[in-house]
Amino acid sequence: MYDIFKTLMPANLVLFNEPMRGHTSFKIGGAADVFVTPETPLQLTAVWKACLERGLPVIVLGGGNNVLVSDAGIRGVVIATGKMTEITVSGMSINAAAGATMGKLADTACKAGLSGLEFAHGIPGTVGGGVYMNAGAYRGEMKDVCTKVTALLPDGETVCYNKADLGLAYRTSRFHNEDAIILKAEFSLTPKPQEEIRATMDDLKTRRRDSQPIEERSAGSTFKRPKVEGMYAARMIEDCGLKGFTIGGAQVSTKHSGFVINIGNATAEDVLRLMDAVQEKIHAQTGIWLEPEVELLGFN
Questions:
Q1: N or C: which end of the chain has fewer CB within 10 A?
Q2: Which of 55, 80, 105 is the last residue of a domain?
Q3: Which of the following is catalytic: 171, 186, 217, 218?
């Protein structure tokens, strides 16, 4: 069933029965049946077309920084965009391929003297993943600067969506609800001296390092901000006495309670049980049900 990928792609770009723990920031997850890393949109298109023709399930992965993969792994094909990394600057715009990292995008903007992406400097993951979830931090979001996205549709055609059509909102986009793969994105920025941009980025880096467990194995913020004015998941978790709460190898970070971290050999089941326990206690004490920000992959 999967032999077709041996003919579609160079051997070094196709892995079979590949453990996903090596491709996620949680360092958790069973094996994917097929793990493909196309280097060009043409290769990606060929792989996706083959999957659709054969009815194979497909998951598109960016940097693996906001996901939890099942201990049982992923049935079907994982298409990882991490080798598609081209970034170009044109005037006050930057075009970036889906696999380019958010950090590299922000650095490129800084070197070009373009402001607007400072918030992205410390966000792990890729441009495609950042657009998909409208990534943001420190009062900046992708929706503030992303003006166009080129995506691949199931029929093999590409389409360009303008900003108004992207559906960018808090940790979501139109791509959550349709079959399309983000290929690249355009960002419109404003001129600013490099030294001022770098100073802002350095300040945000320091604030992240001081307040977040960036050195730990996690998937970033575990829960979304509640849809209640003035309420924050991390504060609610800490107020409920759950800071440091541990199940198996998974723990609510003692540095920032908005993060669940892998403190040992945590399994996906450990993380899920911990998340469920946090949700249940928060709901019991506040009546609010926290919604996961982490994407769950390979779960039924």
A1: C
A2: 80
A3: 171
